Amino acid sequence: MTPIRPDLDTLPAYVPGRTVPGAIKLASNEVTEPPAPPVLEAIARAAAGANRYPDLGVVELTDRLAAAYDLGPERIAVGCGSVTICQQLVQATCLGPGDEVLFAWRSFEAYPIVTQIGAAAVRTVGLTADFRHDLDAMAAAVTERTRLVFVCSPNNPTGPAVHRDEFVRFLTAVGPDVLVALDEAYAEYVTDPDAVSGRPLLDEYPNLVVLRTFSKAYRMAGLRVGYALGSAEVTTALRKVCPPFSISAVAQAGAIAALEHSAEILAGCADVVRERDRVAAALRDNGFVVPDSQANFVWLPLGERAAEFAAHCAEQKVIVRPFVSDGVRVTVSTPQENDALLDVATAFAL
Ligand SMILES: *Cc1c(COP(=O)(O)O)cnc(C)c1O
User: Which residues carry this modification: N6-(pyridoxal phosphate)lysine (predicted)?
Assistant: First the structure.
């Protein structure tokens, strides 16, 4: 018998958004426009040196992030996308069966996968009726076996952001022996003034680690760069379990250029936010339930009709992301692509 872990047979598969040639893809929360021109130039330059290994320590990018967040570089860990950092967090905190990772459900589909890969136990707490984290119930669900909690704000796929006051109450309640990872993959789209921001809480809560990514607002999902901000103890552990050379030279160069031009690049988020609010309002006007979204997508809690809605959209060449028996996540894109979505959605008989 090949010595493969039998539990991998029960590992849920990560379901990527479908790419259909000629269709509008609103399934993966990507930005439709290509990366910014200076990013493309930096990538091309770095590609010419691809015969060499990348910088193992990711030094220049780490220093730039340190300056941007006003943190020492030792408090930053760069990873091959923040999904990989999620997996590293499990590896850095959990020793095996019995150790628990807690998160809300439904939330980011990578959390159960990386937890199981780390041979830790999945513990979940349901969202509230308005599709938000129930942080008081999550605090109550922490046990002496809980090592790590993922809090996704804004929550993928449902949209709402966690509020600062409830998050601080949660951090205080769980105490210093549980590592809390605040996954801010969509932070650049947040407009709710009450929403939590992780960086200002880092100095007071050494058990907090904040995850960010270049995949969404920076339009670099294909390059694979994410990072963690946290205590030096946590980020040092993350670096220890990072697969060597996993942040490519092309990715490092692209991310450095993106930071240099972040003001221009992030200006595009305002358009997405305006479109998000327009799309949500139009869908509500047509009878859909749409929870408050603080990200670049909206959630349609269609329950058993989720797959039917996705198939209806696909027939009209609009690809959305169904979560079977639960709901459909639709990425907010350009006005033209959003209009196409609204046309097919309003033709769907609720
Ligand atoms: C998209 C996303 C990420 C980013 O993943 P990368 O690996 O950086 O591309 C992380 N967390 C959540 C919740 C996401 O939706």
Answer: 216
